[in-house]
Amino acid sequence: MAMRPEVQQRLLELNRQFYATVAEEFDRTRQGLPEGMLRLARLLGERLPSPVRILDVGCGNGRFARALAEAGVAGTYTGLDADERLLALAMEQTRGLKGLSCDFARVDLAQPDWVAATEAPYDAVVALAVLHHFPGRALRQRLVQEMASLLIPQGLLALSTWQFLSAPRFLERTLPWSEIGLSEADVEPGDALLPWNQGIHAVRYVHHLDLAEVEALIVACGLRIIEHFRADGKEGNLNLFVVAQ
Q1: Average per-residue pLDDT for the chain
Q2: Which of 51, 110, 118, 175 could in theory staple to 193 by disulfide, Cβ–Cβ 3.0 to 4.6 A?
Q3: CATH code for the domain of 62
């Protein structure tokens, strides 16, 4: 059964409020370049012609642009995000990157018109730690389809998803749905509420997308997985990276 629209909107608004609340702390804790991100940047550099055109969907503070520059990738990078403060931080922190020209735009990915803000086609579209914040399988499928539509023929779609259900420390922190006036019956299997307590308290919606679910979304768009790996976090495997063509 599909998630009810009013529930979906409640969860989308929760996450908008979350990022508006934690933007500064989120940026402060997301300054480093994790190994998974660097590995993906190197992979794109090896597989794509230079100069590249890369679209980063849900770019946050733009640190993937820094990972690309670190990997020696040259070309143009466009970052899209819904949070105004994170975009301002991204612009500051990517200014003057060697070999990479960066620009940014504010979009709401939950609205289909976000695609109009792009200048497709791109050699690669990446969405890192993004899909798991969008409630409802149908919405996640639509987003993957929209991202795939922005690629050149043989272009690459790269996704990363948070494997929080594999870590007991996150399972212990999940909050009851009653915290935001919902119940288990309102949401889908794999959905969870998690708190943020780094400098400030806030609550976010997340969905656990394992490899099988990510592959199903990708195959439905006519793409195929060419590489996948797990990396990052204290456990060394908290992020699943998938590259499709």
Answers
A1: 92
A2: 175
A3: 3.40.50.150
